[in-house]
Design brief:
- It contains 21 helices and eleven strands.
- A six-stranded mixed β-sheet has the order 6-11-10-9-8-7, sandwiched between helices.
- β3, α12 and β4 form a beta-alpha-beta unit.
- α1 crosses α5, α12 runs parallel beside α13 and α18 packs across α20.
- The two termini are 47 Å apart.
- The N terminus and C terminus are likely disordered.
- This is AFG1-like ATPase-domain-containing protein.
């Protein structure tokens, strides 16, 4: 470091920097005894071991130190990204590197940040008149919530002065959001290993409502349950990473601002990905004007960054592994069977394993402790919910889905459930094998469209926004609305990504994603 600083100072125009001498003992010890005595006795001996003093300003010293340490960080997202480039897992990309630098900055701030202890709970107090009026307006259409307007509030502590701003990364399908979150979460500072949590935002809000229901049952409706839930969350996790941040439910919209304020007050740092900018959240939602303050809070508390570029990272050429099989015949059934047996290895294969989900039992037709196989009609032909699929994909590392048919307008509900399942498998980093009758990308196309085989202008506009071509969608998608087409496009994009070698690597790296 001394040598590096002196060299850097030389570049600033100075000959040397005055530093404590660290080389004199070694020089003297290597001389003869006589020379050693002369060095210690000579009045000018310091010239042999001490450089001339040159006085540099504080700014010059800081510049010299910076010049002496220009190498890339050894820890964090940047180093992890460079390793993956060197190993050929990903292709170097300047746009992604610009985002990685933001993540590295967040890593450095988290490394220097010490979350404060959570103090004792102060007594609740009555809310202000303005707050009561605001609540009354917001809950006006929900009679069972009217009494909340007069609910006592628990005072929040001031947020830590050194609390790092959160990160809000948003962009369209294929912009690399999930990859960047994978990289960041897997390479957080070691001190957060036991206090970090990554979760799909929908699953997180389900957990919040479940905790709130328990508190209200135990302590009564008058409790400021949102703050109590936030305190518990802060005790468990000091860093929260949210996938797919979106607000579509009024039940979420009406509590989100208070929840975020409380999490910040208790020193929790949040990083989130989303398909929408903050200003697009809860668009056209019921009483959206009451949600605007939450949007402003997000913009104040997070560094907001759009990830969109001209590149769809999911469509980049990649070595494909054989994971999708079609059509359904004896040969493809045999291939799927061989794969299942090969992955199962010596693990016991169990038929009709019961899986508990929200107090109900879901039948798993064929499984080992880590692998499951379902027929399409068993998984998507029954009224299962997103929560069911989240639990299934969290339980099994690998899932085989067989006998997937052509889906048309008469099986639209099954198609929606299939998309929910794909989303859950994607978020859980589950390895997916599919046996379908049509090619996997044509599963959602209607064979007998009622619009003469043409995509409507409305559909085409939405597809253009998503960068999705008619060649991929098919002659006529069975979906029509904005949200349906968006979910459909995302499902196709994710199926494409899940067929690549990088997906296998990602699955092993971050299978601990929570749902």
């Amino acid at each position: 470091m001394v040598v590096a600083l002196r060299r850097a100072a030389g570049r600033l125009g100075a000959r040397q920097i005055a530093l404590p001498c660290t080389c004199a003992p070694s020089i003297v010890s290597r001389t003869s005894p006589a020379l050693s005595r002369r060095v210690h006795s000579s009045s000018s001996s310091s010239l042999l071991v001490r450089p001339p003093r040159i006085h540099l300003s504080t700014r010059q010293l800081a510049t010299a130190a910076s010049a002496a340490s220009t190498s890339s960080p050894k820890h964090g997202p940047t180093a992890a990204y460079e390793r993956q480039v060197e190993e050929g897992i990903i292709v170097n990309d300047d746009h992604q590197r610009s985002i990685i630098s933001l993540l590295q900055d967040m890593y450095d701030k988290l490394d220097a940040y010490t979350p404060p202890p959570i103090g004792p709970l102060p007594p609740p107090r009555k809310p202000s008149l303005l707050t009561r009026i605001s609540r009354s307006r917001f809950f006006a259409t929900m009679e069972d919530e009217l009494h909340q307007a007069n609910r006592a509030e628990i005072p929040l502590p001031a947020a830590p002065r050194d609390l790092p701003k959160g990160l809000y990364l948003y962009g369209s399908v294929g912009c690399g959001k999930s990859f960047l979150m994978d990289l960041f979460y897997a390479n957080l500072p070691a001190k957060y290993e036991q206090s970090k949590r990554r979760v799909h935002f929908h699953a997180f809000m389900m957990d919040v409502h479940r905790r709130g229901h328990k508190i209200k049952m135990e302590k009564g409706e008058a409790q400021d349950w949102i703050v109590l839930v936030a305190r518990d969350l802060a005790k468990e996790s000091r860093v929260l990473c949210f996938d797919e941040f979106q607000v579509t439910d009024i039940a979420d919209a009406m509590i989100l601002r208070r929840l975020m304020e409380a999490l910040h007050a208790y020193g929790v740092v949040s990083i989130t990905t989303s398909n929408r900018s903050p200003d697009e959240l809860y668009k056209n939602g019921i009483q959206r004007e009451q949600f605007i303050p939450c949007i402003e809070l997000i913009k104040d508390s997070f560094t907001v960054k759009c990830l969109d570029s001209e590149i769809d990272y999911r469509k980049r050429p990649r070595a494909l592994s054989k994971v999708y099989f079609d059509p359904i015949n004896d040969h493809t059934r045999g291939e799927i069977s061989k794969l299942f047996d090969s992955l199962a290895g010596s693990e016991e294969i169990v038929e009709h394993r019961p899986l508990s989900v929200w107090g109900r039992k879901i039948n798993v037709p064929l499984s080992t402790p880590t692998i499951a196989q379902f027929k399409f009609i068993e998984l998507c032909g029954k009224p299962l919910s997103a929560a069911d699929y989240l639990e299934i994909t969290k339980t099994f590392d690998t899932i085989f889905l067989v006998d997937v048919p052509q889906l048309g307008l008469d099986t639209k509900d099954q198609a929606r459930r299939f998309i929910l399942f794909i989303d859950a498998a994607y978020e859980a980093k589950t390895k997916l094998f599919v046996l379908s009758d049509p090619p996997i990308t044509a599963v959602f196309s209607d064979e007998k469209p009622k619009n003469n085989g043409e995509i409507t202008a409305h559909q085409r506009a939405v597809m253009d926004d998503l960068g999705l071509s008619a060649d991929i969608v098919g002659a006529s998608s069975i979906f029509t609305g904005d949200e349906e087409v968006f979910a459909f496009a995302r499902a196709l994009s994710r199926l494409n990504e899940m067929s690549g070698v990088q997906w296998s690597h990602s699955s092993k790296m971050v299978k601990d994603v929570e749902h």
